[in-house]
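Progress note, sequence design subtask.
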């Protein structure tokens, strides 16, 4: 049986915690920030947690058992 390969694009964007949650960085915080409120920009700094079904797909890409 061939080796399982990690999807490099997914590895760059997601991190799996010790408890199995999948974390990601939120988008929309690079440019065009003057039209966004302080609260919105502050909330975009926070790390997001994927929902269970999406996390299962990402874990398969990351070859996490």
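Output:
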């Amino acid at each position: 049986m061939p080796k399982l390969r990690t999807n490099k694009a997914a590895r760059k964007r997601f991190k799996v915690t010790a408890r199995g949650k999948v974390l990601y960085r939120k988008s929309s915080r690079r440019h065009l920030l003057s039209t966004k409120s302080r609260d919105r920009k502050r909330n975009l700094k926070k790390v997001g947690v994927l929902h269970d079904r999406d996390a299962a797909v990402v874990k398969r890409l990351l070859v996490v058992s």
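The longest helix spans residues 52-62. Work on this subtask will continue into the next period as scheduled.
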